[in-house]
Amino acid sequence: MRKLPPAFRPIIVLRHVDELSIEETADALRISVAAAKRRVLRARRRLRESLSTC
Question: Where in the numbering of this chain does the RNA polymerase sigma factor 70 region 4 type domain appear (predicted)?
């Protein structure tokens, strides 16, 4: 998680730690559902990449 850029950390925490729906996550971050989906996708990709290089 520390290797993720700060913009991606809250989305991962809200979606996967707090187990919020994508709509609830978007509301919490005050972004659109489409933006939340894109951010989750990018954050997961970054997290996967950082874990595979360890």
Answer: 1-47
Q: Is residue 36 part of a domain?
A: yes
SS3 readout for 1-54 = CCCCCCCCHHHHHHHHHCCCCHHHHHHHHCCCHHHHHHHHHHHHHHHHHHHHCC
Domain membership flag for residue 3: no
Q: What integer pLDDT is reported at residue 54 of this predicted model?
A: 64
The number of domains in the chain is 1
Q: How many CB atoms lie within 10 A of CB 24?
A: 14
Q: Per residue in 4-48, pLDDT tens? A: 889 899 999 999 999 999 999 999 999 999 999 999 999 999 989
